[in-house]
Amino acid sequence: DAKTTQPPSMDCAEGRAANLPCNHSTISGNEYVYWYRQIHSQGPQYIIHGLKNNETNEMASLIITEDRKSSTLILPHATLRDTAVYYCIAGRGGNEKLTFGTGTRLTIIP
Amino acid sequence: DAMVIQNPRYQVTQFGKPVTLSCSQTLNHNVMYWYQQKSSQAPKLLFHYYDKDFNNEADTPDNFQSRRPNTSFCFLDIRSPGLGDAAMYLCATSGGLAGLGEQYFGPGTRLTVT
Fold first, then answer.
1. Is residue B87 within 8 Å of residue B36, measured between CB atoms?
2. CA-based Rg of chain B, rounded to a whole angstrom?
3. Running DSSP on this structure, what letter comes out for residue A1?
4. Residues A33, A89: Cα–Cα separation, whole Å
5. CA of A77, closest CA in chain B: separation in Å?
6. A-chain residues near B90 (CB < 8 A)
7. Nearest to A49 among B50, B95, B100 (CB)
8. pLDDT by position in tens, chain A (length 110)
9. d(Cα B76, Cα A73) in Å, to the nearest integer?
């Protein structure tokens, strides 16, 4: 699986959009980009994934660059409950295993 | 609601005393995973079952074993827990209509070794 690089921490004001970057410059053509988050003392939660196209669901939007070497997870209106560690993972999908990196600790500031 | 359940949420065991953690799922997913997460670290995959096929990670210690008697249940056995095995143990599933890599995690069991 391709290695991903994320900033260790970020702050965002409540109500603003949180933009979390991820670099995956060695991603292969058949690898998806997955985003999970882990709120303190809970299990990780799936957020969204994509291959080439931008994706949006009820939780977030995922913007993938045309060369697929980086992506951005966007939480459009951050709330205090979005405070968590966010993991960006490159993986082949199906039932393949996921390798978690160190993630970004996002803190939403009131 | 369909979900992944882990029992107990907190487990205390003594050094060297075998312990079993359990996981059940109502999602009817064919893949079940066990992860270990130590304090301030990312989850680390120990092994997974694809149906009844067991897949061990190369660096998972022999001290860790797993059983999957049926689709719904999976167990993690630690034969002789050491102090270094204190961690959160996470169970996850994937498959069914998803099948594109989304994993559904349980709340975890926090293991303390005294």
1. yes
2. 13
3. -
4. 6
5. 24
6. 43-44
7. B100
8. 678 999 999 999 999 999 999 999 999 888 899 999 999 989 999 999 999 989 999 999 999 999 999 999 999 999 999 999 999 999 887 667 788 989 999 999 99
9. 34
**Residues 6 or more apart whose Cβ sits within 8 Å of residue B48:** A97, B31, B32, B33, B34, B55
Please indicate whether, in this complex, the C-beta atoms of B105 and A97 are within 8 angstroms of each other: no
> Measured between CA atoms, how close is A84 to chain B, in angstroms?
12
A54 membership: H or E segment, kind and range = none
- Are B45 and A99 in contact (CB < 8 Å)? yes
Q: Are A104 and A8 in contact (CB under 8 A)?
A: yes
Task: Check A43 against B108: CB less than 8 A apart.
Answer: yes
- Can you tell me whether residue B17 is helix, strand or coil? coil
- What letters, b where the CB count within 10 A reaches 16 and e where it falls short, cover B35-59? bbbeeeebbbbbbbbeeeeeeeeee
How far is Cα B3 from Cα B80, in angstroms, rounded to an integer? 30
Lookup: tokens for B20: 């079993």
Nearest partner of A98 among B5, B33, B95, judged by Cα? B33
| Distant-in-sequence, close-in-space partners of B41: CB < 8 Å, separation ≥ 6 | none
Instruction: For residue B77, list its beta bridge partners.
Output: B20, B65
Nearest to A46 among B95, B102, B106 (CB): B102
